[in-house]
Amino acid sequence: METVGTASTVWTRETATGAKRDLWSAMKRGFRCRCPRCGEGKMFRAFLKTADNCSVCGLDFTPHRADDLPAYLVIVIVGHIVVPIVLSIETNFSPAVWLQLSIYLPLTFGLSLALLQPVKGAVVGLQWALRMHGFDENAPDGIPPV
């Protein structure tokens, strides 16, 4: 039986060292739809389409994997805003159903649209700050991005 030696790369703290990235400032910059590294370049080229890279510092946005997390977070945030308003108005005033629907549906829709892009930017900023999904330029070869 013959064994073939393969060189494997071991990921340690020393191999993952790099400049420290501030999580909160990266998320704030992303929430403002700006590059999480420099805070100046635009993150989006369309409503929810991220640009390929930052126009100022050149940070590559293509490795981000926000997927459905921004939508879930927007649902939670809007739910925590709209539901207490609905319960308060319903218990104190009890308006007609048509009036409630004419208020709550546009409010929910408007808040959801207004928050979706900033929340996605914050998620991309989070991924950049934590060096997730290909945002780590010091990742050893042979370890595929998750």
Summary, kept brief:
With 146 residues, this protein is an all-alpha fold. It is 45% helix and 0% strand.
Q: Can you give a write-up of this model?
A:
This protein has one domain. The model has no long low-confidence stretch (mean pLDDT 87). Helix 2 (69-92) runs antiparallel to helix 3 (97-129). It is an all-alpha fold. It is elongated, with a radius of gyration of 22 Å. It has three helices and no strands.
How large is the count of helical segments? 3
Which descriptor suits the 3D outline? elongated
Which consecutive residue ranges, at least 5 long each, have pLDDT under 50? Answer: none
Number of strands: 0
Fraction of residues in β-strands: under 5%
Structural domains: how many: 1
- Biggest β-sheet description: none
Q: State the helical fraction.
A: 40-55%
Distance between the termini: 34 Å
Mean pLDDT: 87
Pattern of helices and strands: HHH
State Rg: 22 Å
Question: By helix and strand content, what is the structural category?
Answer: mainly alpha
